[in-house]
Amino acid sequence: xxxxxxxxxxxxxxxxxxxxxxxxxxxxxxxxxxxxxxxxxxxxxxxxxxxxxxxxxxxxxxxxxxxxxxxxxxxxxxxxxxxxxxxxxxxxxxxxxxxxxxxxxxxxxxxxxxxxxxxxxxxxxxxxxxxxxx
Length: 134
Fold this sequence. Notes:
The protein is 4% helix and 51% strand. By secondary structure, it is mainly beta.
């Protein structure tokens, strides 16, 4: 029996660099726009340090967490922000990297994926999104 799901938003992505999604982070009246990569294997959302600084955050005042990757370890700091993705917004705890040389932005399971219903049609390079409560 087919399952029908409706989505509130969609976007096409270029597959060469993964599923890249236009994203905006905000804290109070400050906001920053960026492109983040969907990473279903990442436990958390992790962003470049500079974006935390642009939001006016004291990045290293956040809760410290050490992350392990196949390439080694890195440190990041947790902060509460509002994430805006394709017209959908919600509060989330995210991490900003300690090292200014960290130049990747990931949307992970906690703080992003667990707040949304998603559909991916990779053949068409199409991402479909709705808020989880929708």
